[in-house]
Amino acid sequence: MSLSQQLDRLLEAGLAEVTGVAPADLAAQVAALPDEPQSVLAVHPGLATARQLAPLLRHHGKPGFVVEDMTDLEAFVAIERVAAVLPERPFYLLHGLDRGDDMRNWSPTEALPAVLGRGRSPLTVNEGISWLLQDPKILEPNHCFMTIGSRKPKGETLDARTPAIWISGGTGRDGTARRGAPKVGWCWAGNRHTWLGFASAAHRH
Asked: How much is the pTM?
């Protein structure tokens, strides 16, 4: 899709409403980017946070949500390796996206050096949501992903949680009404999950 078509998808999803920015102003920001084939339009957290974007997601008509116990989602920021190359614009482009299925059942601690070793960059939670807003089919049962490009600083170390996006089973505090809905949640950095890969990009600009 062209960037203008991608912006149309974001506007249809409600981006102007959650940001309070006029569609014409958003269009001007996108028009300043090179319209490169196969690129995906990413929404910078300075324009809209992951919490604002999550409800715009859809899976089989169900809106996305953030798990109740992730009240500090805004504190999850780009890790140092990603922050160094993260464009400071409302929109930017992602290239060569991959869901990381081959790393399912790896832990985030194991996956990060492997992703970097391939010359790739892990997606932030905003970038993961941006990708799904353009291509909802990427989120499939047993084929979902973590976004380990975002972590929460905790003193000199990192919080033990890593953000992830998957499909709610409608259990627990999610509620049965949310069964099948896109879910922004978290996993422990040392734990493995058979249904979660590690989304990454070849580069961003």
From this structure: 0.97
